[in-house]
Every structure is written in structure tokens, then in C-alpha cells.
């Protein structure tokens, strides 16, 4: 956030070209691992040069489009829900586009997976919106503050987005938070549709685990005023449970349905966003139940040993 605007507008549009430049690096930007990554970018470029041309084309295309989108929102705020969706598309939906194209190109998944990128975009939006909601406390403390909550939503509950961190505004802040959750859960049906055809186990886990973590995170932040004062997140135990059990469609959807139930049980009957959230979650559960009927349950130990052979136990589970 401390990098001057003119530097960002100059550097971002040409950043995708640096995957072909083993001499380029940038110093003095970012913190921690981000700073280290830019300082050692020649290593990234050398690794990129070893990829097949069809993979490099996808990566460079997505990086270029993402950077141009970032430049757009560097010069204007996120005001409407349309702005919000577009911003999330640039920073996460395009990642879904790129990954889906790579999955199809490398033949790990059906070559037609990338014919329609609608669901992959929604996958990105669901993750990004969850992060934006959860990260309010960290983002508002940045200098200048990072504000991605759309005014079309928060403007109904306060004069300034920063005001929600004041405990005297807690009631309106929580109402706004729940409206943001309602906006996020609308992407769940597309997430389920995206996961359904995936056939490669490693790709399935790579895609499913973050999505299950997202619905679990929304269940944590919903109606939770602490979201405006600390970084609310799932416990380590709950996170590990998601990673262990989200290894196939049947079990991953089971975990997803479990968190839908958790969120449904928390719904405040007096909150204006409750009907919209309940409708989305109940429809998601119906879809999940329908899909799981056609799946063969995989015993836990068999799934664990087949996906993590490094545990050193041969899979002889019934």
C-alpha cells in the first residue's frame, strides 16, 4: 500500500513480460516473503522458461489482464456491487480462469473443462469475497486503508466504512457484515457445479479444500462483531479436518453441507439478510444431497492412505 500510485500504474501493465526476462527484479517493495519474491524474481523467470509454450501463454495472459484490472481499481473505488464483482474477477476470478485452462491443457482434466469459464470465475469470487469479509480488521488498519467492501452495501448501514470498528456502531456493523455474507453465498451453486466433473485427485483437493474452508470461514464471521476487531478464522483443528476429509467429491460435499448447517443454525431471524442466506444455503444442500446419492462413499482410512502414501501404510482397508 505504500508504493506510490504512479509506480504501480507504470509497472503493473508490463509485469507479465517479466516471465521472459531472467534479469529483471525489483527491490524495496513489499514486506516479508512478497519482498523476497520480487528481489529473487529471476528464479521465477527461469522456472517459467522451462514450461511448455501453451502454459506460458495462459500465465502471461492472466497476469496481463489481472494487472490491467488492478490499474483500473487503483484509480477508482469499489462503489457498486457490479464494481465489487468486477474487482474480485480481476484478482481472483481470473486465477480461476487461468487454472482451469491449465488443467484442461495438461490433460489432467477433460479438455472441454475450459469451454465455459463461468463456474471457475465464481470459484474465485467466492474465495475472494470471503477473504475481503474476514480481513476487514487488517485491511482497515493499512495506511492508506484498503477498502473493498462495496459502498452499495455498507452505505446502507453507516457513513464511513471505518466507523464499523467503533463498538458503539456494533449493531449496524453486524447488519452490514451479514449483508456481505449474503452477497458471498450466492456463488455456492457454481462452486458445486465446478467441483462435480473434476477427475484428477490432486486437482480436486487443490480446488475443493479452499472452497470448504471458505464456507467454514463464513460460518465463523457471520453475525460476529469481533470480525471488526480481530482476524476471525477457523481453528487449526477445524482446518486440518477440512484438509483431511475433502479428498473426494462425496466427502468434500459432506463437509460443505455440514458448514451450511452450521451457518443455518446461526441465522438471526430478525436480520434482514437472513431470508437470502437461508435460501442460498438450503438450495445448496439440496444440490449436494442429490449429487451425493450418485457417489460411492470412500472409507476414511482408504481415502487417507491412497492420497497420502507417505504415511507408509499399505492400503488394505475394506
Automatic annotation (TrEMBL):
Q: Does the keyword Transferase apply?
A: yes
Which SUPFAM superfamilies does the record associate with it?
Answer: Terpenoid synthases
What EC number is given for this enzyme? 2.5.1.21
**Looking at the keywords, is Transferase present?**
yes
GO molecular function per UniProt: D-glucose transmembrane transporter activity; squalene synthase [NAD(P)H] activity
PROSITE patterns, sorted: SQUALEN_PHYTOEN_SYN_1, SQUALEN_PHYTOEN_SYN_2
| Cofactor(s) the protein needs | Mg(2+)
* Keywords, sorted A to Z: Transferase
Pathway this chain belongs to: Terpene metabolism; lanosterol biosynthesis; lanosterol from farnesyl diphosphate: step 1/3
Gene Ontology terms: biological process: farnesyl diphosphate metabolic process; lipid biosynthetic process
One family from Pfam that matches here is SQS_PSY
Reactions catalysed:
2 (2E,6E)-farnesyl diphosphate + NADPH + H(+) = squalene + 2 diphosphate + NADP(+); 2 (2E,6E)-farnesyl diphosphate + NADH + H(+) = squalene + 2 diphosphate + NAD(+)
GO CC term, one of those recorded: endoplasmic reticulum membrane
Q: Which family does it belong to?
A: Belongs to the phytoene/squalene synthase family.
What does this chain do?
Catalyzes the condensation of 2 farnesyl pyrophosphate (FPP) moieties to form squalene.
Q: What is this protein called?
A: Squalene synthase
Instruction: Name the species this protein comes from.
Output: Strigomonas culicis
Q: What is the lineage of its organism?
A: Eukaryota, Discoba, Euglenozoa, Kinetoplastea, Metakinetoplastina
Amino acid at each position: 500500500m505504500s508504493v506510490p500510485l504512479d509506480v504501480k500504474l507504470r509497472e503493473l501493465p508490463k509485469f507479465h513480460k517479466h516471465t521472459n526476462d531472467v534479469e529483471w527484479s525489483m527491490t524495496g517493495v513489499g514486506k516479508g516473503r512478497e519482498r523476497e519474491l520480487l528481489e529473487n524474481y529471476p528464479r521465477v523467470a527461469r522456472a517459467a522458461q522451462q514450461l511448455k509454450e501453451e502454459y506460458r501463454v495462459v500465465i502471461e495472459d492472466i497476469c496481463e489482464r489481472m494487472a490491467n484490472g488492478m490499474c483500473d481499481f487503483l484509480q477508482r473505488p469499489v462503489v457498486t456491487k457490479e464494481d465489487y464483482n468486477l474487482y474480485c474477477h480481476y484478482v481472483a476470478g481470473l486465477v480461476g480462469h487461468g487454472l482451469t485452462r491449465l488443467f484442461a491443457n495438461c490433460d489432467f482434466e477433460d479438455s472441454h473443462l475450459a469451454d465455459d469459464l463461468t463456474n471457475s470465475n465464481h470459484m474465485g469470487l467466492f474465495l475472494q469475497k470471503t477473504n475481503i469479509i474476514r480481513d476487514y480488521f487488517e485491511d482497515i488498519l493499512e495506511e492508506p486503508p484498503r477498502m473493498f467492501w462495496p459502498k452499495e452495501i455498507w452505505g446502507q448501514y453507516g457513513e464511513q466504512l471505518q466507523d464499523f470498528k467503533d463498538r458503539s456502531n456494533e449493531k449496524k456493523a453486524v447488519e452490514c457484515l451479514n449483508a456481505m455474507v449474503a452477497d458471498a453465498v450466492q456463488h455456492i451453486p457454481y462452486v458445486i457445479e465446478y467441483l462435480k466433473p473434476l477427475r484428477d485427485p490432486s486437482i480436486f483437493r487443490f480446488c475443493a479444500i479452499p472452497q470448504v474452508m471458505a464456507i467454514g470461514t463464513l460460518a465463523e464471521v457471520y453475525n460476529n462483531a469481533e470480525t471488526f476487531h480481530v482476524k476471525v478464522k477457523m481453528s487449526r483443528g477445524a482446518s486440518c479436518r477440512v484438509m483431511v476429509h475433502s479428498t473426494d467429491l462425496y466427502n468434500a460435499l459432506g463437509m460443505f453441507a455440514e458448514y451450511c448447517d452450521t451457518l443455518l443454525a446461526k441465522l438471526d431471524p430478525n436480520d434482514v439478510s437472513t431470508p437470502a442466506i437461508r435460501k442460498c444455503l438450503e438450495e445448496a444442500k439440496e444440490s449436494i444431497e442429490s449429487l451425493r446419492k450418485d457417489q460411492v462413499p470412500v472409507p476414511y482410512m482408504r481415502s487417507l492412505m491412497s492420497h497420502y502414501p507417505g504415511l507408509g501404510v499399505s492400503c488394505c482397508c475394506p
